[in-house]
User: Fold these one by one.
Assistant:
Number 1:
Amino acid sequence: MTKLIIGLGNPGREYDGTRHNIGFRVADALAERLGVGYKSKRKFLAEVAETKRGEMTLLLARPLTYMNLSGQSAAALREWYKCELRDVFVMYDDADLDLGRLRVRGEGSSGGHKGMQSIIDALGTSAITRLRLGVGRSDGPRDGLKDHVLSRFDRNEEKIVKEMVVRAVEAVESWLDRGLAATMNEFNSRTKEIE
């Protein structure tokens, strides 16, 4: 059985550390925890790390297509590795969730996230497990969303983000070991107050 875990973000140093790249950051933390490194795979338009976990083959991917075309990479990986839809897990930023909040879902709309919408379109279904990572709301108008998600976390926010990344890795491992329902039950109900 092959599990495909995709962290969304934009390639390039200018996007490192931005809110929009929190999916990459969680993928990197998971790769470090698993002791694996990425290799650039042109045919998948992604950096891919592969490892075993018991009987499972784990693929960890960082699409290099830019956010809005992430579905091209997801579809290529899924097709090549013959992954079942239920074995695809996507991690991405969500400006509608408070900073540090996690939300695991087994299906649903993209909520306006263009990377997730690209994956839904490319895979032909909204029944894709995803981990939404709260990057906080912009205080400005809705049209300021692009500037907000492309901004970096400030020093006070960074403490919360580091904790969220640790919990996000735990959520992925929970999904791998215990399944979707148990993971949703544990991580969606956590409303830990952060000072």
Number 2:
Amino acid sequence: MRGMHTLWLAGNQLQVLPSELSQCTQLTALLVDRNDLQSLPRSITALPNLHTLSVDRKTFALLDPAVLTFCTALPTFDILGL
């Protein structure tokens, strides 16, 4: 999974993202729309190549902006439905 560039997890009723996600250092796009996540895990701050993060308003109960602060390569953060 370390060489993966896009991870599309939309519509899977996920409640958490695995901490192992931080090992996907080549990941450039993470699409987690239509899930039941409580928050973004801090493990995404270890993704230096992440350029696209796509969620929708139903995805998160809580969105901690501090997590996004550490995603310095992230020019695109898409929250659908707001």
Number 3:
Amino acid sequence: MLNKRFTLFVISVLILFVGCVSERVNELQSVEIRQYNGENLSSFIELRDVSIKGPQNIDIKSYRLELSGLVNNPRKYTYDEVLAHQKYKKVVQINCVEGWKSKNLWEGILLKDVLDEAGLDPKANTIIFYAYDGYSTSLPLEYILDKNILLGTK
């Protein structure tokens, strides 16, 4: 009987130990998706960097997505709050004024979702974007809503 209790004790300790050890994560080799739903995609490696100051290192802890202007409820989202929204995937072709184009699979949140949360003023007709590196651009609100424009996260 003592031997049986000792065996059960050892098994219990082993189960407890195995459950407390952190799970080992094996990293796999990166792969690039070149086809999605029957569409050929461009290489992200070949995607040109046309930013003003080159790739930026953004501090995720201090990152904020701010919605202001003609809105009833101005908002500032942390990066985690942005990621908490419903995510969508979409193939998008970017046509640059310099003549190159790139078709890639993007994942992100619908810009419409955060605009709805901010409560757009009926007078709003244009959305202006300001990037971390100083770049800015704008899009007509109708275009954003009709084309299901994403705020890309992947």
